Amino acid sequence: MKKQSSLARLFAYAGNYKYLTILSWILSVISAWIALVPFYYIWKIIREVLNAAPEYSQVEHLSSYGWSAVLSALLSMVIYIGALMCSHIAAFRVQANMRSEMMHHIVTLPLGFMDSEGSGKIRKTVNECSAATEAYLAHQLPDQAGAYATPVGLLVLLLVFDWRLGLLSLIPVGLAFLIMGSMMGKKMEQKMKEYQNALEEMSSEAVEYVRGIPVVKTFGQSVFSFKRFRTSIEKYEKWTIAYTEDLRIPMVAYTTIINAVFTILIAAAFFFTASNTFLLNLLFYIIITPIITVTLNKIMFFSENKMIVADALARVDGIMDCRPLEESGREEQPKDHSIIFERVSFRYEDTAKDALHQINLKIGEGEHVAFVGPSGGGKTTLASLIARFFDVTEGAVKIGGVDVRDIPSKELLEQVSFVFQDSKLLKMSIYDNVRMGKKDASREEVMEALKNAQCEDIIEKLPDGMDTIIGTKGTYVSGGEAQRLSIARAMLKNAPILILDEATAFADPDNETKVQEAFSRLSKGKTVVMIAHRLSSVTNADRIFVLKDGEIEESGTHESLEKANGLYAHMWEKYNQSVCWKVGV
């Protein structure tokens, strides 16, 4: 199948607005040709002055020629503004449609997609790649049409007045095109892709760095503590310097030649017979040839901009080509709220080793279990499979005896609530943030959820209560407070299966007490899966599963695992030592 051009792709997003884009090209061409008309009147002014010399009082048409030149220039500007109006309307529509289509597609992708790709990278693709297409359609394509039309009109002017000077003017143009070709092509396209990759990597790492600033400030570390961010900056620096050095000689040669057109014309004057007509044409050519320089520079940058847009569309395709998790179409309903893992293995893309390997376990309805173990053991991955953030590589995850792949996505989301380690609140009111758990909830229901989640003290100190918008006028909440608001959201949703991923990680002692009380209310009558490093929070769990290297090392109650003297007992001992640790005096 033949690959569509970038323009065809953009027209697909434009719909009927593509005709406005085409109209903008036509108007830009007309504007470019009319813009050459003032030069014709300038030639007539020079001719009349030279013919009348030295009796300048005999000059009669200077005023009319001057006004004709001004009116032609104004007409060209008006038509060009019309071209830009058409192109901007179409470009804004393309950008809006592209962003809308990407966002609609992103929300259909599994939640694991955001973790694997990184929010910084996705944000850059959605915002900056669509913005690149907007600039291309709104400005560069109309200008490109005018830039290609200008040489045609110039060629007519250059050859009509004096074909010898016209041909001489074209010699630097030909040389400039040859040099331009050496800087463009497949090599330049690859360089542009590398440039965008370097920018994307630096943008993504910058987002992660900004998120880690609290740690940097707490421990007095510098930017160099973030090795990946530093490496991405150094990589971009090396690439930029190397690329600039590669293009230094051809760019200098191009700039010198294209700006020296009039020099050739002046040299030619010494070889041709001087006359009033020749002098007239020479002056006219010296005035008009700088347009060639401007036009060629535009054409050169158009090639670069086209590559940028092609790369932007390729990155958009990178998101659009990611497929949502397949629906089986069977649409079975769970019989209860138990959870079963049957020979479950899972491997992330581009990795050689399973993150989980042959996991078998059953969690009964209403049972409270905990996943603990060393970092990287697979705790969060295992819990994520319950909510189908990813699909298993092998085996099956079942809720109520039904494979999660056979449960409709909407139904599955209603079955499971997640309270994450780093709870996110959107820039909207507390009321709207909590109501995301249940879109049709009344204010009374939201307030009841806030009370049950121990959030009354948060609401009382905010200027507008639960109608306060987070992030405006310096209004923010702490990590522990954000956690309690997330619990209120989960309470309002009231899903029968609850997954708590390091949910007290950012809570201070006072907040932790309130969070734990909120959890106890939230967990009543629900199947609960807790992921924790703080072992004191899981001692009351019905069962504890200890994961190591993607496998279940051991399982049981806190008491039985402590007596078994295995990995859990070792972790419990180290945990108690850390709790009792004090700074020496």
From TrEMBL:
Signal peptide: none
Keyword annotations of the record: ATP-binding, Membrane, Nucleotide-binding, Transmembrane, Transmembrane helix
Pfam families with a match to the protein in the record: ABC_membrane, ABC_tran
Membrane topology, from the record: Multi-pass membrane protein
Transmembrane segment boundaries: 20-43, 65-92, 167-185, 251-272, 278-297
Subcellular location: Cell membrane
Any GO molecular function: ATP binding
Occurrences of domain ABC transmembrane type-1 (ranges): 26-277
PROSITE patterns for this protein: ABC_TM1F, ABC_TRANSPORTER_1, ABC_TRANSPORTER_2
Domain of life assignment: Bacteria
Domain ABC transporter residues, every copy: 339-574
Name of this chain's protein: ABC transporter ATP-binding protein/permease
